[in-house]
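Figure S4 source data
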Amino acid sequence: MRQTRLSCRHNANAFPSERHSRWHSSARLARRTLFEAAIEAVKEAILNSMLMAETMQGQKNRTVHALPLARFVEIMSR
């Protein structure tokens, strides 16, 4: 019989099956919610850094231009 990760860590007979199923389901939902929040935070940070950057000049007069916001919105709305 193949053991799942859950049954390796927990005694399957310690909880009634319905209670165990609810616990497992709510733990999965909590992990999913946490990962979705982390993904949204990373997306927000990336967009914020891209859109708030200003044109700047660096070493050896190298210039990096800010993104044109109107063009960015146009591309993202496709």
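Figure S5 source data
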Amino acid sequence: MTAPGGWTYRVGLAGPPPVHVVEQIRARFGPVTVAAAGGLRVLEGRIADQPAVRALLTLVWDAGADVRLLLLSDDVDGR
């Protein structure tokens, strides 16, 4: 299922993401922010559909990052 215009995603990691992963996310999916929140490093951006979500997670997992949280929201501001 896909929200019209895609989703805002938040991926919470147990530690900081490798810099090359953030660069790859920007190249493949567009703008991404990285912030600390609740003891996690949170990647946030927009994503088109479920296959793109899977590709994003695979990219993060393949880099060895420990994913602790995934949130998808229909709202542009992620709330």
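The longest strand covers residues 40-47. The CA atoms of residues 2 and 46 lie 12 Å apart.
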